Fold ABC transporter permease.
Amino acid sequence: MNFWEYLGNRHQQLLADAYQHASAVFQCMVVATVIGVLIGVATYRSGWAGNLATLTTSSILTVPSLAMIGLLIPLVGLGVAPTVIALTLYGLLPIVRNSIVGLRGVDATLVDAAKGIGMSRWARLLRVELPLAWPPILTGIRVSTQMLMGIAAIAAFASGPGLGNEIFRGISSLGSANALNQVLAGTLAVIVLALLFDAAYVLIGRLTIPRGIRA
């Protein structure tokens, strides 16, 4: 059968895999965002601490995804657990780095003005610094999401959820009638999901970043 016939016959399974793929990436991005921003908040005031945080998270990113998942399998088993841990770790670097850069780039005079009117350190952080640092933080989240979309497909190696199962089934049956259709369908679905997520981030940026800051 041709590719379009394959999609027609397998669309329910593809939709289920796409939902699991998007859900895994979204949930891991939420966790990575919370952890990454907290690390940025904890380290941006210190040069060495910020450099250490960036170096540590960048070192994680150098580990091949297949090797990372393979190392996690003996520790947490197959399935969702190694997928969630690996994706969360891989998503940290852009968020940590952009959080540090964004917070360090806040105009010191604005922070001093907030301090002058009696704001506490936490109030300045939550009401002045983090809102002004939000554009680069959001950019880091977008970059992380695009990376995780592709890395999540490797999770099928550990029986993880998502479109990687479709891709791996095609690769493992190369030479069969639908092998190429399986790989192509899974790959295109990952690309479509990545574009949809990125469009959602553009919308979030327009809704949460004032026009003056965007400019």
Residues 3-43 form the longest helix (41 residues). Residues 22 and 179 are 23 Å apart (CA to CA).
